[in-house]
């Protein structure tokens, strides 16, 4: 349980410590990548709680979503259409849905445990 | 990494954990990196805004200071004049000198000038189809010079062009259809106002073969207006 958290902290530290400058044009892509990563992460957590979690789906989804979002933004920049908005919208909606499902599952679990505890007493 | 969680029963446990680790590291990296970037950006924009603000405040301070100093200058000059006046009432021989000083100050434009005077307006002549050159009937700065010089010679205390008081070291420059008086542009018609004895001024301008005749010869529309009271601010009061 602690290993992923450690990984997250390690990644954060790495990201904060790197001093590479990227052109301002590509900052859009980065924001989309952040959104895609968060979306996939919460999707994974939800799948895990619903017991439908699958390794391959998770990992492929993670990298594929990031790549797709970045590609869409790239295409949008070159076509003159703000296509990255589509990615932001889709990921944003899914993020909220995933978090809502996770919350509901956790509440149900907590209530169940609470009831069981009461009964046992 | 292998036997850290022996109580889990899934055989794919370690692989799963490893994948999760990589994904989380990537996520953390992206988030941290973009946080870093946006932080830098915010810092830069903040710096610019602060600079802007500080410059503006400095400017306001300077302007206020200028105004204070200008008030002080005016006040001190007023005091000097008062001293001189009291001086003159005591000792008659200095009276003439004080008068002269007053006159010089008026010419320099350091004190407001109020009194009777005249206004001369120079307008471009009507379009004349017989002449191809419009320079033949528009007002040039030489005409304005003529009028101003004549007014000065005949004892005008203070002169202004289109409301701008002339100083001792004022300059007037022809600038196409407009003239530039001490850096400010004025279009035609040009209104030259002078404070002084209006009879003398008018007579000197209307002398036969004098300034007015020359102006009329150059197809310029000249109007002369006598005024009982013309007041001009001192040059110091203008910003």
TrEMBL record, chain A:
GO terms for cellular component: plasma membrane. Keywords: Cell membrane, Membrane, Transmembrane, Transmembrane helix. It is found in: Cell membrane. Pfam families: DUF1290. It is a multi-pass membrane protein. The keyword Transmembrane applies. The chain crosses the membrane at residues 28-45, 57-77, 83-106. Its main location: membrane. Belongs to the sbp family. This is DUF1290 domain-containing protein.
From TrEMBL, chain B:
The chain crosses the membrane at residues 18-35. InterPro entries: DUF881. Residues 52-93 form a coiled coil. The keyword Transcription does not apply. The keyword Membrane applies. Pfam families: DUF881. Keywords: Coiled coil, Membrane, Transmembrane, Transmembrane helix. Belongs to the UPF0749 family. This is DUF881 domain-containing protein. It comes from Lysinibacillus composti.
């Amino acid at each position: 349980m602690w290993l992923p958290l450690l990984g997250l902290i390690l990644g954060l530290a790495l990201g904060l410590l790197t001093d590479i400058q990227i052109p301002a044009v590509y900052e859009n892509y980065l924001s989309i990548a952040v959104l895609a990563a968060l979306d996939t992460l919460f999707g994974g957590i939800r799948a895990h709680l619903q017991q439908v979690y699958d390794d391959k789906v998770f990992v492929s989804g993670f990298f594929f979503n990031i790549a797709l979002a970045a590609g869409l933004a790239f295409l949008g920049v070159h076509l003159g259409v703000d296509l990255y908005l589509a990615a932001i919208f889709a990921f944003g909606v899914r993020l909220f849905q995933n978090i809502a499902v996770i919350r509901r599952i956790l509440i149900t679990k907590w209530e169940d445990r609470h009831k069981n505890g009461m009964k046992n007493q | 990494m292998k036997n850290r969680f022996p109580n889990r029963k899934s055989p794919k446990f370690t692989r799963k954990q490893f994948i999760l680790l990589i994904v989380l590291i990537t996520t953390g990296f992206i988030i941290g990196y973009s946080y870093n970037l946006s932080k830098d950006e915010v810092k830069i924009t903040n710096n610019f805004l602060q600079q802007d603000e500080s410059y503006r405040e400095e400017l306001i301070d300077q302007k206020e200071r200028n105004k204070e100093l200008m008030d002080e200058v005016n006040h001190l000059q007023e005091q000097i004049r008062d001293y001189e006046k009291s001086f003159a009432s005591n000792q008659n021989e200095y009276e003439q000198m004080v008068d002269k000083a007053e006159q010089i100050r008026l010419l320099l434009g350091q004190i407001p000038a109020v009194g009777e005077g005249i206004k001369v307006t120079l307008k471009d002549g009507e379009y004349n189809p017989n002449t191809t050159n419009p320079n033949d009937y528009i007002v040039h700065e030489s005409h304005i010079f003529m009028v101003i010089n004549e007014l000065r010679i005949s004892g005008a205390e203070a002169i202004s062009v289109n409301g701008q008081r002339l100083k001792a070291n004022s300059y007037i420059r022809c600038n196409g259809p407009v003239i530039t008086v001490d850096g400010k542009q004025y279009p035609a018609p040009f209104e030259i106002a002078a404070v002084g004895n209006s009879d003398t001024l008018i007579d000197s301008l209307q002398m036969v073969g004098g300034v007015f005749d020359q102006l009329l010869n150059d197809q310029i529309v000249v109007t002369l207006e006598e005024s009982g009271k013309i007041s001009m601010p001192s040059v110091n009061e203008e910003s």
